[in-house]
Amino acid sequence: MEKIVFRHQEIETLPLPQLKELQRQKLQKTVEAALKTPFYKKRLNDAGIRDARDIQTEADFRKIPYTTKHDLREAFPYGMLAADKADVVRMHASSGTTGVPTVVYLTQADLDKAAELNARSCACTGSTKNDVFQNMMTYGLFTGGLMLHYGAERLGMMVIPSGSGNTKRQLQLMKDFRTTVVHATPSYLLHMYDVMKEEGFRPEDFALKKAYIGAEPHSEDIRKKIEMLYGIDAYNSYGLSEMNGPGLAFECVYKNGMHLWEDYYIGEIINPETLQPLSDGERGELVLTILERNGMPILRYRTRDLTRFIPEPCPCGRTHRRLERMTGRSDDMLIINGVNVFPSQIEEVIMKMPEIGNNYLIRVQKQGPLDKLTVKVEVTSSVFTDDTRDLENLQKRIQSNLQAVVFIRPAVELHEPGALPVSQGKAVRVIDERKES
Ligand code: AMP
Ligand code: ZN
Fold first, then answer.
1. Rounded to a whole number, what is the largest CA-CA distance in the chain?
2. Do 170 and 23 belong to one domain?
3. In the list 154, 169, 275, 341, which could disulfide-bond 119, CB 3.0-4.6 Å?
4. Which residues of the chain have pLDDT under 70?
């Protein structure tokens, strides 16, 4: 087991009551900043909150209405911007976007804080400046790539910003630069292992010690498999773009749940049906409030991710509570090879195409370690001609239109009118076969 390293010793081991007091103080400032935005001014005033001083106790905090992804879209583009636009240095957006993206804005101070939290997260797994960090996450609008990149640099690791894909090159870089830590989705690491074998690399070609895995749900078995195949430790990292992505909750060397950095985030677990808060240890939907983000405060954000706080203290000595690995979502969002996809996005695209009828089916399967998305559509009878080229063209057009919106290229199957099953009652449009496999 790695030596326990604290980057922010005092904060990371602050007793819970003091941590709560720190949250309370920061929350006041956050509410003050939020009240300056058009969105929250209205939202909070409607709930009877006119002044940050109205929020003193936990009961006051619970008067703050939840914020949802829908709200972020409604407030697009600047309805939640709290800083002067000239002070914003970065924007990011969620990987799952229908038309209007969910965007967050960061000032330089926000970015510095995010980098520090990511550095803390890397340190908490035992990484140091002597490590070589290869970042296989997508760079760009998605927070997963850039945020952990900044954190790894902040810790002093040598960063290889390889980005996602191009597996042979990834392996060559890992070999040439003696990479010790990689950051990737768990499904990509499983895929990379197959390529490693095919290409004839040997375990002694590499110096890998750790993997940071996140951006998609995975089981303990998947973690163990990755650890066994590569002979390394794999650490779960959870984040979402609305909350700055990674550096939010990270596993320590004990790998038994992710410490939520409670000096910067307030975490709650609620019942997604009744919306009532649950107590420590109960499983429900995670709700997060980000503190001190000057560019864009978000209060009580419904993540839709299902988890629980692990009530027992962690042997590492950190007081920040641990979140159990995510067990699912309270909405219908699918995560396909790390990319968020809502069935409604797919529906919107296909319903705009006059050649397609009303019935469609979305199928998600495992293809080796990766996910495969297939969209089956019924075309109108006039489209079914003898000319297969017409059908091929239509198929490609559907594929491209879908790719433009969901950012992955699904397989598309065309069916004759009436060929797809019609459900009795509520239509079943999504068949996710990954859970059974
Ligand atoms: P994005 O906003 O594109 O970064 O996507 C965030 C979503 O990805 C989260 O709300 C989760 O549903 C999912 N996610 C991220 N990290 C993990 C993880 N470690 N385990 C399970 N799901 C994750
Ligand atoms: Zn710990």
1. 74
2. yes
3. 154
4. 1-2, 95-99, 385-386, 423-427, 436-437
pLDDT score at 383: 78
Whether residue 98 has its Cβ less than 6 Å from ligand 1: no
Ligand 1 pocket check for 116: Cβ under 6 Å: no
State the alpha helices, DSSP H only, in 156-304.
167-176, 186-198, 220-230
Structure tokens, 235: 């650490």
Same domain, 48 and 120: yes
Whether 61 and 141 share a structural domain: yes
CB-count burial class (<10 Å; 0-12, 13-18, 19+) for 262: buried
Q: Give pLDDT, residue 217.
A: 86
pTM over 0.70: yes
At residue 315, the pLDDT reads 97
Whether residue 195 sits in one domain with residue 159: yes
Q: What per-residue confidence (pLDDT) applies to 2? A: 66
Which residues are placed with Cβ below 5 angstroms of ligand 2, an ion?
Answer: 252, 254, 314, 316, 318
The number of the ligand nearest the C-alpha atom of 183 reads 1
pLDDT of residue 429: 86
Beta-carbon contacts of 409 under 8 Å, excluding residues fewer than 6 positions away, are 399, 402, 403
